[in-house]
Automatic annotation (TrEMBL):
Keywords: GTPase activation, Leucine-rich repeat, Repeat
InterPro entries found in the cross-reference section: Leu-rich_rpt (IPR001611), LRR_dom_sf (IPR032675), RanGap (IPR027038)
Taxonomic lineage: Eukaryota, Sar, Stramenopiles, Ochrophyta, Bacillariophyta
One Pfam family here: LRR_6
Name the UniProt record assigns to this protein: Uncharacterized protein
GO molecular function (one): small GTPase binding
Key word Repeat present: yes
């Protein structure tokens, strides 16, 4: 069980820590020296972290989580402007499995260096970092092989567009371990959706949840994604809120799902979220029946 680390108010001087164990009414072993040294190096390098951790790690803000042995397993640095962190600050955190760098505006070379230094990483959050162009997305993708066990990749709101999505898709297609992929708000459009459709059609695809809300996906993109549903053996949840798939896009999913049911084939997709897509009541009802689900949001139609 992971326990929240609470560090002494005199962090800058002593860097001592204890983990309270409510089950036993006593203290867990202190945070490991390696973990403390790594956190101290970050604090000394980045003014925003010095401010964040001025009085130690607040148990309520959850920025640092450690296991019962005092090893840091999760680190939330999101929402703070960071400019200098690099791989050397993370090398000692060999148990780190979850890292949030969302909204930090870290330079790409720093992000790549950090990723490459944490081979055991399982969850990586990089939303809101303005990654942008296809070249920069491809640059990021070069670092992903360094984390072979990565299961959650969050790149929401990074302005990657259709070309950036295609560059990411090329790397994702080589990886069989990604389970949860967040790409909300990236304006990937129909071309980006088509690139993701190819991934979903691959027999090696392992994505279970795909988040594509607010991406300017219209009927053509939805048709590509729907076509992939028949071949896919992993996708359980698909989020398409706030796009523009319309009745045509919704009907493409309905037809695909109904066909699978009629053939007696397994339907892996069980949740499809399509609210705010200008679908209309009739197409929404057909889609709900095809999914055999009450979780599809029925639009309010004037």
């Amino acid at each position: 069980q992971q326990q929240q680390i609470t560090v002494s108010r005199h962090l800058e001087m002593t860097l001592t820590a204890t983990v309270d164990d409510p089950r036993e009414g006593g203290a867990r072993p202190p945070m490991t020296p390696a973990s403390l040294a790594a956190l101290r190096s970050m604090k000394e390098l980045e003014p925003s972290l010095a401010e964040k951790w001025a009085n130690g790690w607040d148990e309520q803000n959850g920025s640092v989580t450690a296991d019962e042995n005092g090893d840091v397993v999760a680190l939330d640095l999101g929402g703070r402007r960071l400019r200098k962190l690099n791989g050397s600050n993370f090398e000692a955190l060999d148990k780190l499995s979850t890292l949030n760098l969302g909204g930090t505006d870290l330079p790409m070379e720093c992000i790549k260096s950090i990723i490459s230094s944490i081979p055991g990483l399982e969850k990586l959050y990089l939303g809101g970092n303005g990654i942008g162009t296809a070249a920069r997305v491809a640059d990021l993708a070069e670092a992903l092989p360094a984390v072979p066990g990565l299961m959650t990749l969050d790149l929401r709101y990074n302005d990657m567009g259709p070309d950036g999505c295609a560059a990411l898709a090329e790397e994702i297609s080589r990886r069989e371990n990604i389970r949860f992929l967040h790409l909300e708000g990236n304006e990937i459009g129909d071309d980006g959706a088509a690139a993701l459709g190819l991934i979903l059609s691959s027999p090696t695809c392992s994505i279970k949840e795909l988040y594509l809300g607010g991406n300017h996906i219209n009927a053509a993109g939805a048709i590509n994604l729907a076509g992939a549903v028949g071949a896919n053996q992993s996708l359980e949840k698909l989020y398409l809120e706030g796009n523009g798939i319309g009745p045509e896009g919704a009907d493409a999913f309905s037809v695909q799902l109904t066909t699978l049911h009629s053939k007696g084939e397994a339907v892996i997709l069980t949740k499809l979220y399509v609210d705010n897509n200008n679908i209309g009541k009739n197409s929404m009802k057909r889609l709900a029946r095809a999914l055999n689900s009450e979780t599809v949001v029925e639009e309010m139609v004037a």
